[in-house]
Amino acid sequence: MSNSSFTQSKWILYTGIGWFFGVLLVLLLAGLLESIHLDCQSLIGVAMGFGVGTIQWLLLKKQFAISFMWVIFLIIGLTTPFVIFDVASKYMYLPVESSMPVIVASGALLSSYLQYRFLLSSLNSTAKSWIGYSLAGWLVASSLCMFTGYTIHMHSITRNTIVVINILLFIAAGPILGIITGKGIQGLVKAEN
């Protein structure tokens, strides 16, 4: 497979677009579930896995002939911890804000392990590093989004400024995910050359 079409900036762009697509899906699904009075966090894993995974896959299938299982593994990995959280929170009090880092870390580890084990491990010996880059990327990106929950307590700045800060945090999260995970993918590309 030709490596000339892959660049780090393309990965960042694709991941950023996928993030934006995922956020839109979260909002759409949240609205639909809210209209039928159903509260569940699992839609975050489904929407972000589908959004980010699909757009990344569009680039990866050209580069490495990666199958659509890339998307499926990302959905399964990101959604499973949210399903566990949703079920457990029916029986005990679990605050979403303090549970989110564990949920995201678990989802990133599971999804990246599945992607590594079944799709990347046969490419070259550096593929295992994908797990660490993916974990770091998802944790940093989700932390930016979680920070928006704390900006509402910033009384020294105007409400409009807080809205702008929150929008910028959500927008920045996707490319930052791309920058971090791109290091892992770039390593695969370099090792293949």
How would you briefly describe this protein structure?
With 193 residues, the chain is mainly alpha-helical. The protein has six helices and no strands. It has helices spanning 8-35, 42-64, 69-88, 96-120, 129-151, 159-192.
In whole angstroms, the N-to-C terminal distance is 10 Å
Give the overall shape.
Answer: globular
Count of β-strands:
0
Low-confidence stretches: none
Strand content: under 5%
| Number of structurally distinct domains | 1
Q: How many DSSP H or I helices?
A: 6
N-to-C SSE string, H for helix and E for strand? HHHHHH
Q: What does the largest sheet look like?
A: none
Q: Mean pLDDT, rounded to whole units?
A: 92
How much helicity do the residues have?
over 70%
Classify the secondary structure makeup into a structural class: mainly alpha
The gyration radius over C-alpha positions equals: 17 Å
